[in-house]
Design a protein that fits this description.
405 residues, five-stranded parallel beta sheet, 16 helices, binds zinc ion, globular, 3 domains, alpha/beta
Length: 405
Protein backbone atom coordinates (compact mmCIF):
# COMPACT_ATOMS: atom_id res chain seq x y z
CA UNK A 1 0.00 0.00 0.00
CA UNK A 2 1.31 3.43 -0.80
CA UNK A 3 1.69 6.15 1.80
CA UNK A 4 -1.00 8.21 0.17
CA UNK A 5 -3.55 5.41 0.42
CA UNK A 6 -4.64 6.67 3.83
CA UNK A 7 -6.32 10.02 3.98
CA UNK A 8 -5.13 11.78 7.08
CA UNK A 9 -8.32 12.68 8.79
CA UNK A 10 -10.67 9.81 8.11
CA UNK A 11 -11.62 6.64 9.91
CA UNK A 12 -10.21 6.05 13.33
CA UNK A 13 -7.97 9.13 12.91
CA UNK A 14 -10.86 11.57 12.63
CA UNK A 15 -11.04 12.50 16.33
CA UNK A 16 -7.40 13.58 16.30
CA UNK A 17 -7.80 17.32 15.79
CA UNK A 18 -4.85 19.67 15.43
CA UNK A 19 -2.14 17.02 15.58
CA UNK A 20 -0.87 16.82 12.01
CA UNK A 21 2.67 16.82 13.39
CA UNK A 22 2.38 13.33 14.90
CA UNK A 23 -0.15 11.80 12.52
CA UNK A 24 2.35 10.50 9.89
CA UNK A 25 4.39 8.75 12.57
CA UNK A 26 1.36 7.00 14.00
CA UNK A 27 0.01 6.03 10.60
CA UNK A 28 3.38 4.61 9.57
CA UNK A 29 3.38 2.53 12.75
CA UNK A 30 -0.10 1.20 12.01
CA UNK A 31 0.87 0.20 8.48
CA UNK A 32 4.08 -1.42 9.64
CA UNK A 33 2.15 -3.31 12.33
CA UNK A 34 -0.23 -4.96 9.92
CA UNK A 35 2.56 -5.90 7.58
CA UNK A 36 1.42 -3.79 4.66
CA UNK A 37 4.76 -2.02 4.52
CA UNK A 38 7.70 -4.08 3.37
CA UNK A 39 10.34 -1.45 2.77
CA UNK A 40 12.17 -1.99 6.01
CA UNK A 41 9.85 0.37 7.83
CA UNK A 42 8.72 -2.34 10.23
CA UNK A 43 10.69 -0.46 12.87
CA UNK A 44 7.98 2.16 12.73
CA UNK A 45 6.04 -0.14 15.03
CA UNK A 46 6.90 -0.93 18.62
CA UNK A 47 5.31 -2.74 21.58
CA UNK A 48 5.37 0.16 24.01
CA UNK A 49 4.30 3.75 23.52
CA UNK A 50 4.21 6.72 25.85
CA UNK A 51 1.81 9.47 24.83
CA UNK A 52 2.62 12.67 26.69
CA UNK A 53 0.74 15.93 26.89
CA UNK A 54 -1.42 17.91 29.31
CA UNK A 55 -4.93 16.66 30.15
CA UNK A 56 -7.29 17.44 27.29
CA UNK A 57 -4.47 17.79 24.76
CA UNK A 58 -5.63 14.65 23.04
CA UNK A 59 -2.95 12.25 24.31
CA UNK A 60 -5.52 9.55 25.02
CA UNK A 61 -7.37 10.32 21.78
CA UNK A 62 -4.09 9.75 19.91
CA UNK A 63 -3.48 6.46 21.74
CA UNK A 64 -7.04 5.34 21.03
CA UNK A 65 -6.72 6.19 17.33
CA UNK A 66 -3.54 4.16 16.99
CA UNK A 67 -5.11 1.31 18.96
CA UNK A 68 -8.02 1.29 16.51
CA UNK A 69 -5.77 1.48 13.47
CA UNK A 70 -3.86 -1.58 14.68
CA UNK A 71 -7.06 -3.62 14.55
CA UNK A 72 -7.75 -2.69 10.93
CA UNK A 73 -6.18 -4.39 7.90
CA UNK A 74 -6.12 -0.98 6.28
CA UNK A 75 -4.58 1.04 9.13
CA UNK A 76 -7.81 2.59 10.33
CA UNK A 77 -10.03 2.88 7.26
CA UNK A 78 -13.11 3.61 9.36
CA UNK A 79 -15.32 1.38 7.26
CA UNK A 80 -14.54 -2.24 8.13
CA UNK A 81 -16.11 -4.18 11.01
CA UNK A 82 -12.97 -3.81 13.15
CA UNK A 83 -12.96 -0.03 12.69
CA UNK A 84 -16.64 0.16 13.57
CA UNK A 85 -15.98 -1.65 16.84
CA UNK A 86 -12.97 0.55 17.64
CA UNK A 87 -14.69 3.80 16.79
CA UNK A 88 -17.68 2.89 18.95
CA UNK A 89 -15.21 2.29 21.77
CA UNK A 90 -16.04 -1.40 22.04
CA UNK A 91 -13.32 -3.39 20.35
CA UNK A 92 -12.74 -6.40 22.62
CA UNK A 93 -8.98 -6.25 22.05
CA UNK A 94 -8.59 -2.66 23.17
CA UNK A 95 -8.61 -2.13 26.92
CA UNK A 96 -8.47 1.26 28.62
CA UNK A 97 -7.38 1.24 32.23
CA UNK A 98 -7.56 3.91 34.91
CA UNK A 99 -6.33 3.63 38.47
CA UNK A 100 -9.01 2.56 40.97
CA UNK A 101 -7.37 4.58 43.76
CA UNK A 102 -4.91 7.47 43.95
CA UNK A 103 -2.18 5.29 42.52
CA UNK A 104 -2.30 2.07 40.52
CA UNK A 105 -2.02 -0.88 42.86
CA UNK A 106 0.63 -3.50 42.13
CA UNK A 107 -1.85 -6.41 42.24
CA UNK A 108 -4.11 -4.51 39.83
CA UNK A 109 -1.22 -4.08 37.38
CA UNK A 110 -0.15 -7.71 37.76
CA UNK A 111 -3.68 -8.88 36.89
CA UNK A 112 -3.60 -6.51 33.93
CA UNK A 113 -0.27 -7.81 32.62
CA UNK A 114 -1.69 -11.34 32.82
CA UNK A 115 -4.72 -10.37 30.78
CA UNK A 116 -2.45 -8.52 28.39
CA UNK A 117 -0.19 -11.48 27.74
CA UNK A 118 -2.93 -13.56 26.12
CA UNK A 119 -3.65 -13.54 22.41
CA UNK A 120 -6.09 -11.02 20.95
CA UNK A 121 -9.71 -12.21 20.88
CA UNK A 122 -10.84 -11.02 17.48
CA UNK A 123 -8.17 -8.70 16.12
CA UNK A 124 -4.46 -8.63 15.34
CA UNK A 125 -3.22 -6.95 18.50
CA UNK A 126 -4.19 -6.76 22.12
CA UNK A 127 -3.83 -3.11 23.04
CA UNK A 128 -3.78 -1.80 26.59
CA UNK A 129 -4.16 1.96 26.99
CA UNK A 130 -2.93 2.93 30.46
CA UNK A 131 -4.39 6.32 31.36
CA UNK A 132 -2.63 8.42 34.00
CA UNK A 133 0.59 6.40 33.87
CA UNK A 134 2.04 9.11 36.11
CA UNK A 135 0.07 7.41 38.87
CA UNK A 136 2.16 4.25 38.78
CA UNK A 137 4.19 4.08 42.00
CA UNK A 138 7.40 2.09 42.42
CA UNK A 139 5.72 -1.24 43.04
CA UNK A 140 3.01 -0.97 40.39
CA UNK A 141 5.53 0.38 37.88
CA UNK A 142 7.77 -2.60 38.56
CA UNK A 143 4.87 -4.94 37.91
CA UNK A 144 4.40 -3.25 34.55
CA UNK A 145 8.10 -3.08 33.78
CA UNK A 146 8.35 -6.85 33.40
CA UNK A 147 5.66 -6.82 30.71
CA UNK A 148 7.44 -3.99 28.89
CA UNK A 149 10.80 -5.74 29.07
CA UNK A 150 9.50 -9.01 27.69
CA UNK A 151 6.49 -7.98 25.64
CA UNK A 152 4.03 -10.64 24.54
CA UNK A 153 4.19 -11.04 20.79
CA UNK A 154 0.76 -9.60 19.95
CA UNK A 155 0.46 -7.09 22.80
CA UNK A 156 0.94 -3.34 22.58
CA UNK A 157 1.12 -1.02 25.59
CA UNK A 158 0.11 2.62 25.28
CA UNK A 159 0.84 4.72 28.34
CA UNK A 160 -0.55 8.24 28.77
CA UNK A 161 1.03 10.81 31.07
CA UNK A 162 1.61 14.58 31.24
CA UNK A 163 5.33 14.18 30.45
CA UNK A 164 8.06 11.55 30.33
CA UNK A 165 9.43 12.96 33.58
CA UNK A 166 6.19 11.92 35.29
CA UNK A 167 6.84 8.22 34.84
CA UNK A 168 9.76 6.18 36.18
CA UNK A 169 12.81 6.46 33.90
CA UNK A 170 12.92 2.66 33.59
CA UNK A 171 9.39 2.77 32.15
CA UNK A 172 9.93 5.80 29.93
CA UNK A 173 13.14 4.37 28.46
CA UNK A 174 11.27 1.30 27.23
CA UNK A 175 8.58 3.28 25.46
CA UNK A 176 8.56 5.28 22.27
CA UNK A 177 7.48 8.74 23.25
CA UNK A 178 4.95 10.76 21.25
CA UNK A 179 4.36 14.27 22.50
CA UNK A 180 0.90 15.69 21.96
CA UNK A 181 0.67 19.48 22.08
CA UNK A 182 -2.50 21.26 23.09
CA UNK A 183 -3.65 22.66 19.74
CA UNK A 184 -4.24 26.43 19.61
CA UNK A 185 -7.88 27.51 19.97
CA UNK A 186 -8.19 28.77 16.41
CA UNK A 187 -6.81 25.52 14.96
CA UNK A 188 -9.52 23.56 16.77
CA UNK A 189 -12.20 26.01 15.65
CA UNK A 190 -11.07 25.84 12.00
CA UNK A 191 -11.02 22.03 12.10
CA UNK A 192 -14.52 21.82 13.57
CA UNK A 193 -15.82 24.17 10.87
CA UNK A 194 -14.06 22.26 8.09
CA UNK A 195 -15.04 18.80 9.25
CA UNK A 196 -18.58 19.23 10.40
CA UNK A 197 -19.68 22.19 8.30
CA UNK A 198 -20.80 24.16 11.36
CA UNK A 199 -20.76 27.94 11.77
CA UNK A 200 -17.54 29.46 13.03
CA UNK A 201 -19.35 31.19 15.91
CA UNK A 202 -20.79 27.86 17.06
CA UNK A 203 -17.39 26.17 16.75
CA UNK A 204 -15.79 29.02 18.72
CA UNK A 205 -18.41 28.74 21.46
CA UNK A 206 -17.92 24.95 21.72
CA UNK A 207 -14.13 25.25 21.80
CA UNK A 208 -14.18 27.90 24.52
CA UNK A 209 -16.78 26.02 26.56
CA UNK A 210 -14.61 22.88 26.33
CA UNK A 211 -11.67 24.76 27.89
CA UNK A 212 -9.02 23.24 25.68
CA UNK A 213 -10.37 19.68 25.72
CA UNK A 214 -10.50 18.88 22.04
CA UNK A 215 -12.76 15.82 22.23
CA UNK A 216 -15.20 17.73 24.40
CA UNK A 217 -15.22 20.64 21.93
CA UNK A 218 -16.22 18.30 19.11
CA UNK A 219 -18.94 16.70 21.28
CA UNK A 220 -20.35 20.08 22.31
CA UNK A 221 -20.33 21.27 18.71
CA UNK A 222 -22.15 18.22 17.39
CA UNK A 223 -24.18 16.50 20.08
CA UNK A 224 -27.42 17.93 21.45
CA UNK A 225 -27.43 15.62 24.48
CA UNK A 226 -23.92 16.83 25.45
CA UNK A 227 -25.09 20.44 25.26
CA UNK A 228 -28.17 19.63 27.36
CA UNK A 229 -26.09 17.95 30.05
CA UNK A 230 -23.78 20.93 30.18
CA UNK A 231 -26.70 23.29 30.73
CA UNK A 232 -28.06 21.05 33.50
CA UNK A 233 -24.72 21.15 35.27
CA UNK A 234 -24.26 24.89 34.86
CA UNK A 235 -27.76 25.53 36.23
CA UNK A 236 -26.60 24.12 39.58
CA UNK A 237 -24.82 27.29 40.87
CA UNK A 238 -28.07 29.29 40.62
CA UNK A 239 -29.97 26.62 42.54
CA UNK A 240 -27.84 26.40 45.66
CA UNK A 241 -30.08 28.66 47.75
CA UNK A 242 -30.27 26.73 51.03
CA UNK A 243 -28.90 23.59 52.66
CA UNK A 244 -31.53 21.13 51.35
CA UNK A 245 -31.02 22.42 47.80
CA UNK A 246 -27.31 21.54 48.05
CA UNK A 247 -28.07 17.94 48.98
CA UNK A 248 -30.73 17.70 46.30
CA UNK A 249 -28.39 19.06 43.63
CA UNK A 250 -25.65 16.62 44.65
CA UNK A 251 -28.02 13.67 44.61
CA UNK A 252 -29.46 14.54 41.20
CA UNK A 253 -26.03 15.23 39.72
CA UNK A 254 -24.49 11.95 40.90
CA UNK A 255 -27.56 9.96 39.83
CA UNK A 256 -27.52 11.46 36.33
CA UNK A 257 -23.79 10.88 35.93
CA UNK A 258 -24.18 7.30 37.11
CA UNK A 259 -27.13 6.70 34.77
CA UNK A 260 -25.26 8.17 31.80
CA UNK A 261 -22.16 6.10 32.57
CA UNK A 262 -24.26 2.94 33.04
CA UNK A 263 -26.03 3.50 29.74
CA UNK A 264 -22.75 3.93 27.87
CA UNK A 265 -21.18 0.93 29.58
CA UNK A 266 -24.19 -1.37 29.08
CA UNK A 267 -24.44 -0.54 25.41
CA UNK A 268 -20.75 -1.23 24.87
CA UNK A 269 -20.73 -4.37 27.02
CA UNK A 270 -23.47 -6.07 25.08
CA UNK A 271 -21.97 -5.33 21.68
CA UNK A 272 -18.60 -6.62 22.81
CA UNK A 273 -20.02 -9.88 24.06
CA UNK A 274 -21.74 -10.41 20.76
CA UNK A 275 -18.48 -9.66 18.92
CA UNK A 276 -16.58 -12.23 20.98
CA UNK A 277 -19.26 -14.89 20.65
CA UNK A 278 -19.41 -14.34 16.92
CA UNK A 279 -15.64 -14.58 16.69
CA UNK A 280 -16.06 -18.10 18.06
CA UNK A 281 -18.89 -18.80 15.67
CA UNK A 282 -21.43 -18.72 18.43
CA UNK A 283 -24.23 -16.58 19.68
CA UNK A 284 -24.93 -15.25 16.23
CA UNK A 285 -28.50 -16.56 16.36
CA UNK A 286 -29.10 -15.42 19.88
CA UNK A 287 -28.02 -18.68 21.51
CA UNK A 288 -25.93 -16.48 23.75
CA UNK A 289 -23.72 -17.38 26.61
CA UNK A 290 -25.48 -20.54 27.77
CA UNK A 291 -24.37 -22.57 24.76
CA UNK A 292 -20.94 -20.97 24.47
CA UNK A 293 -17.87 -23.15 24.52
CA UNK A 294 -15.50 -23.14 27.47
CA UNK A 295 -12.97 -21.09 25.56
CA UNK A 296 -15.55 -18.49 24.56
CA UNK A 297 -16.67 -18.34 28.19
CA UNK A 298 -13.09 -17.71 29.23
CA UNK A 299 -12.93 -14.81 26.82
CA UNK A 300 -16.21 -13.46 28.09
CA UNK A 301 -15.02 -13.51 31.68
CA UNK A 302 -11.86 -11.66 30.66
CA UNK A 303 -14.03 -9.20 28.79
CA UNK A 304 -16.08 -8.62 31.94
CA UNK A 305 -12.94 -7.53 33.79
CA UNK A 306 -12.20 -5.04 31.02
CA UNK A 307 -15.75 -3.80 31.11
CA UNK A 308 -15.63 -3.18 34.85
CA UNK A 309 -12.49 -1.16 34.45
CA UNK A 310 -14.09 0.82 31.64
CA UNK A 311 -17.25 1.49 33.69
CA UNK A 312 -15.03 3.11 36.34
CA UNK A 313 -13.32 5.19 33.70
CA UNK A 314 -16.57 6.36 32.10
CA UNK A 315 -17.94 7.46 35.46
CA UNK A 316 -14.73 9.21 36.41
CA UNK A 317 -14.78 11.07 33.09
CA UNK A 318 -18.35 12.16 33.78
CA UNK A 319 -17.44 13.60 37.18
CA UNK A 320 -14.31 15.25 35.80
CA UNK A 321 -16.37 16.91 33.12
CA UNK A 322 -18.94 18.19 35.61
CA UNK A 323 -16.23 19.70 37.79
CA UNK A 324 -14.43 21.21 34.81
CA UNK A 325 -17.66 22.85 33.67
CA UNK A 326 -18.36 24.25 37.14
CA UNK A 327 -14.79 25.46 37.48
CA UNK A 328 -15.10 27.27 34.16
CA UNK A 329 -18.35 28.84 35.30
CA UNK A 330 -16.82 30.30 38.48
CA UNK A 331 -13.77 31.40 36.53
CA UNK A 332 -16.21 33.41 34.38
CA UNK A 333 -17.83 34.82 37.52
CA UNK A 334 -14.42 35.81 38.89
CA UNK A 335 -13.41 37.41 35.56
CA UNK A 336 -16.61 39.41 35.51
CA UNK A 337 -16.03 40.60 39.07
CA UNK A 338 -12.43 41.55 38.31
CA UNK A 339 -13.51 43.68 35.35
CA UNK A 340 -10.90 42.07 33.09
CA UNK A 341 -12.06 42.25 29.49
CA UNK A 342 -11.73 38.67 28.31
CA UNK A 343 -14.11 36.42 26.42
CA UNK A 344 -16.21 34.26 28.75
CA UNK A 345 -15.79 30.49 28.64
CA UNK A 346 -19.56 30.23 28.83
CA UNK A 347 -20.65 33.16 26.70
CA UNK A 348 -24.18 31.76 26.38
CA UNK A 349 -24.70 31.99 30.15
CA UNK A 350 -23.56 35.55 30.69
CA UNK A 351 -26.86 36.47 32.37
CA UNK A 352 -26.54 33.96 35.21
CA UNK A 353 -22.80 34.61 35.43
CA UNK A 354 -23.45 38.32 35.95
CA UNK A 355 -26.19 37.62 38.47
CA UNK A 356 -23.89 35.44 40.60
CA UNK A 357 -21.03 37.93 40.11
CA UNK A 358 -23.22 40.67 41.65
CA UNK A 359 -24.35 38.53 44.59
CA UNK A 360 -20.82 37.50 45.61
CA UNK A 361 -17.28 38.86 45.52
CA UNK A 362 -13.88 37.80 44.15
CA UNK A 363 -12.84 36.12 47.40
CA UNK A 364 -15.99 34.01 47.28
CA UNK A 365 -15.27 33.01 43.70
CA UNK A 366 -11.70 32.04 44.53
CA UNK A 367 -12.94 29.98 47.49
CA UNK A 368 -15.43 28.26 45.21
CA UNK A 369 -12.82 27.48 42.57
CA UNK A 370 -10.59 26.06 45.29
CA UNK A 371 -13.48 23.89 46.45
CA UNK A 372 -13.82 22.52 42.89
CA UNK A 373 -10.12 21.68 42.74
CA UNK A 374 -10.31 20.00 46.14
CA UNK A 375 -13.28 17.93 44.94
CA UNK A 376 -11.29 16.76 41.91
CA UNK A 377 -8.50 15.64 44.24
CA UNK A 378 -10.93 13.88 46.59
CA UNK A 379 -12.55 11.92 43.76
CA UNK A 380 -9.05 10.77 42.80
CA UNK A 381 -8.69 9.20 46.24
CA UNK A 382 -11.81 7.15 45.61
CA UNK A 383 -13.97 9.09 48.06
CA UNK A 384 -17.70 8.41 47.70
CA UNK A 385 -18.86 10.75 44.90
CA UNK A 386 -22.14 11.67 46.62
CA UNK A 387 -20.31 12.82 49.75
CA UNK A 388 -17.79 14.78 47.69
CA UNK A 389 -20.48 16.63 45.76
CA UNK A 390 -22.59 17.26 48.87
CA UNK A 391 -19.57 18.76 50.57
CA UNK A 392 -18.73 20.77 47.48
CA UNK A 393 -22.20 22.25 46.98
CA UNK A 394 -22.61 23.02 50.67
CA UNK A 395 -19.31 24.89 50.68
CA UNK A 396 -20.28 26.78 47.50
CA UNK A 397 -23.55 27.82 49.12
CA UNK A 398 -21.91 28.50 52.48
CA UNK A 399 -19.39 30.98 51.06
CA UNK A 400 -22.22 33.16 49.76
CA UNK A 401 -24.34 32.67 52.88
CA UNK A 402 -21.37 34.07 54.80
CA UNK A 403 -21.79 37.37 52.97
CA UNK A 404 -25.31 37.96 54.17
CA UNK A 405 -25.07 36.51 57.67
ZN1 LIG B 1 -10.79 -0.51 8.99
Amino acid sequence: MSESAIATHVGVWAPLIGHDDVLPQLQRAARAANGSMFDGAALAMTHAWLFTGPPGSGRSIAATALAGALQCADAGCGECAACELSMAGNHPDIEHVVPTAVMYRADEVRALTQRASTLPMVGQWRVIVVEDADRLNDSSANALLKALEEPAERTVWMLCAPSAADVLPTIASRCRQVHIHTPPLQVVVDELVRRYGIHEAHAMWATRAAQGHVGRAAALARDERTRERRLQVLAIPGRLTDLPSCFEAAKAMVATAQADADAIAAQLDEREQVAVLQAYGEGAEGKGLSSASIRARGEISRLKKQQESRARRVLRDEFDRVLLDLLGFYRDVWMTQSGVQQPLINSDLSESIHRIARSSNQDTSVARMNAMTAAVAMLRTNAAPLLVFEGLFVSVWDTSAGLTR
